[in-house]
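User: Need the bound-state model for tetrahydrodeoxyuridine:
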Amino acid sequence: MAPRSRPHDELVRAARAARARAYAPYSRFKVGAAVRAGETVHAGCNVENASYGLTVCAERAAVAAAVAAGARRLDAVVVASGTSPPTPPCGACLQTLAEFGGPDLPVVLAGARGARVETTLGALLPSAFGRRFL
Ligand code: THU
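Assistant: Bound-state model below.
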């Protein structure tokens, strides 16, 4: 019997495929991310640099790809790692996601052996800074 499909399956596949292309020769910690904006999926992976501090996280790479394609509002995010428990976005990435998604934005953490944790941006970053403070 075919395995039952789950919500966000397409996004999880895209994030895992991006993870396989991660450039992480220094940490060897590969991360992929995929965001959905309407019907369109955009993916990114972490891109490290010999000067370490220039490293771009997978989530911010995916957001940059979405914005470059014209997206301004995200509907869901998946972060694919190989860890257990699954890796959440770092603080900088949460803040970047908050620019394009509200507290109800679904954030799915896909980790080792098919594990998935479903949460929201608001749960991970309850007091986001945003334009309303400017
Ligand atoms: N990394 C991400 O891509 N996303 C995160 O949310 C956490 C960390 C990357 C950055 C670096 O290349 C490696 O994982 C180790 O920190």
